[in-house]
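Morning. Coffee machine broken again, so started the prediction first thing and wrote up yesterday's gels while waiting. Chain of 436 residues, entered below exactly as on the submission form.
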Amino acid sequence: MARVGGFERAPRILVGLSGGGDSVALTLLLRRWVAARGGDLLAVAVDHGLRPESAAEAAAVGAAMARLGVPHRVMRWEGDKPSSGLQAAARSARRRLLELACAEAGCLHLALAHNRDDQAETLLLRLSRGSGIDGLAGMAASGTAGLVRVIRPCLEFSHERLLATCRAAGVGWVEDPSNRNPRFARARLRAVGDLLAGEGLSVDRLADTARRAARARAALDHATAALLARAASLHPEGWIRLDPVALADAPEEIGLRALTRCLTVVGGDEHPPRDAAVERLYGGMCDSVTVGRASFPGCTLAGCRIAPRRGGVVIAREATAVAGPQQATPGERLWWDRRFIVIPSADRTAPVTVAALGAAGWARLVADNPDVRGHDAPALVRPTLPALWSDGVVVAVPSLGFRRAGEPPGDVVRFSPALPLAGPAFPVVSARGGII
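Came back before lunch.
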């Protein structure tokens, strides 16, 4: 736990509990660790609804947690299931539901039970897909995921050691048959594990390779952060001004990483765009430095619009890619477009709709309030800003400092993308007693 980072004085942690031996062992270990610090632990299981017996298994795990005195909750993956890429979709749904549970429970930390064997499998899978240094670094022991920090305290321990922890505590676990289903790539890798180990690709060796790649990734991330500090200006309206000269002067790998991170932050996605597409964009921007600004007309990529502006480059959210409207009640915390935390004033008397301002909304805003034209946000950014609507009328655009006459103060909009611009940083939280 010391290796995965700092915690508040009374840690509040949510653990993703599948019912398998790994997650049960992690829950047992966290239960002791959290209790010693006067904190709280919540175990959350996600029922994917993919097998008839999954609901009963989730209930059984809940009963086991009740006997241990660990609060437990089951969330269900509703809706249609894809016919292909099922495991990836299930993992994505599970993470989304666990992040939602963290937000609802006020947990900053989401603990997952990935272990050394999982790390080795991840390395093999990514190697088979031609991943670069980032992919071969495997899973990080800690990192951000939206509004929470994901920690993997068991990443250095083997699957067998975690099962031994369960046995020592006299607590059982559930075996998921999909772990042996040859339909899935991870199951096929497990089936040939002994063969791979005989050829030198043992779990320990693969995990060590991932550790060394992670060390290289950390060094590259450090250099990328230094470049971004010189080349990028991140604005609270969710756009970035980039200096193409500083980008072109950097080593190509560092420049590409910096550009990729800018696109990921502004586009609101956890996953970076394809390398080839970023390389083309990077080449065009670097050419503009030597040939002239007119040689780079701008483009769209990864949900972003990239355009030259006053000797630099603006990276803004693409208007057509912005999230749709969402209703929010007074005082409710909403993560809109995976980029903004929006909290309507608690003094409001009715729900509002959070949606993009749009070109028409901006035009109406200017007609009624000409002063907003003086705001520094570029023209391509303004239509993408989160606005509060009521009965088809814009009542507030906090990013522009606009509030319609008669509307209560206190609406909050804060840029909070899925990933930070640099580093594996986690947002600092301030409380009355100081920094936690």
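Residues 203-231 form the longest helix (29 residues). Going to sketch it on the whiteboard this afternoon.
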